[in-house]
């Protein structure tokens, strides 16, 4: 049978909560270092946590008034002749794409930007009517949904333009907005 100290150490080790997972190691292998006193390396800092000492009252609060204020400040700095885009890709970076998009548009952002067709479709389903720029290429299977949701794709080569043109003709729309992407030497496409 384990000694009292060994048993207490084992119980303490069983209570350790991994603080983050390393993408290259997978979710099951947590990026932690364990020693006798349960130290973890997180963001380059040593910390000691157990299941009993991890803060449980953390939250995130999104201030939609602050988003509106930031759009207004950007408007003042950009001037009246430039358009303001609110980037709400990845669910507005985890903050809630629809409420953030609504706040930004109400404050004067002329258009929005998303990473995927699905993100744009969800904004349309939420009532957003402002132009929505799609930062990444969509697959041929998504072209019809892109056109139906009236998302603005960027185009840069003949094959992609042809696929988009087919989807637009199929929809019977007379005009369809696009954003012309020009490779300025970085050879980078997408978000």
Characterise this structure:
The structure is a single chain. The protein is of the alpha/beta class and about 190 residues long. It contains seven helices and seven strands; from the N terminus they run αββαβααβαβαβαβ. The protein has helices at about 5-15, 65-80, 90-95, 95-105, 115-125, 145-150, 160-170; strands at about 40, 45-50, 85, 110-115, 130-135, 150-155, 180. The model is unreliable at about 10-40 (pLDDT under 50). Strands 3-4-5-6-7 form a five-stranded parallel beta sheet. The protein has a two-stranded antiparallel sheet with strand order 1-2. It is globular and about 55 Å long. Helix 2 crosses helix 4. It starts with a helix and ends in an 11-residue tail after the last strand.
Keywords:
single chain, 191 residues, alpha/beta, five-stranded parallel sheet, two-stranded antiparallel ribbon, 7 helices, 7 strands, 37% helix, 13% strand
Structural class: alpha/beta
Mean pLDDT: 78
Order of H and E elements: HEEHEHHEHEHEHE
User: In angstroms, what is the radius of gyration?
Assistant: 24 Å
Low-confidence segments, ≥5 residues, pLDDT <50?
12-40
DSSP helix count? 7
What is the number of E strands? 7
Span between termini: 57 Å
Short structural description:
With 191 residues, this protein is of the alpha/beta class. The protein contains 7 helices and 7 strands, in the order αββαβααβαβαβαβ.
Describe the secondary-structure layout.
Elements: H1 4-14, E1 39-42, E2 45-48, H2 64-78, E3 85-87, H3 89-94, H4 97-106, E4 111-114, H5 117-125, E5 132-134, H6 143-148, E6 152-155, H7 158-171, E7 179-180
Parallel strand pairs: 3-4, 4-5, 5-6, 6-7
Antiparallel strand pairs: 1-2
Helix pairs in contact: 2-4
């Amino acid at each position: 049978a384990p000694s009292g100290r060994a048993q207490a150490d084992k119980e303490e080790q069983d209570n350790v909560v991994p603080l983050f997972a390393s993408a290259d190691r997978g979710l099951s292998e947590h990026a932690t270092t364990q020693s006798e006193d349960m130290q973890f390396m997180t963001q380059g800092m040593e910390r000691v946590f157990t299941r009993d000492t991890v803060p449980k009252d953390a939250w995130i609060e999104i201030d939609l008034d602050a988003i509106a204020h930031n759009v207004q400040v950007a408007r003042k700095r950009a001037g009246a002749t430039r358009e303001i885009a609110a980037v709400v890709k990845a669910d507005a970076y985890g903050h809630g794409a629809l409420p953030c998009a609504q706040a930004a548009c109400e404050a004067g952002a002329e258009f929005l930007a998303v990473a995927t067709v699905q993100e744009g479709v969800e904004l349309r389903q939420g009532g957003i009517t402002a132009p929505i720029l799609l930062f990444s290429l969509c697959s041929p299977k998504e072209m019809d949904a892109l056109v139906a949701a009236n998302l603005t794709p960027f185009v840069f080569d003949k094959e992609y333009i042809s696929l988009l043109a087919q989807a637009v003709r199929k929809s019977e729309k007379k005009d369809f907005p696009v954003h012309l992407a020009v490779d300025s030497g970085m050879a980078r496409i997408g978000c």
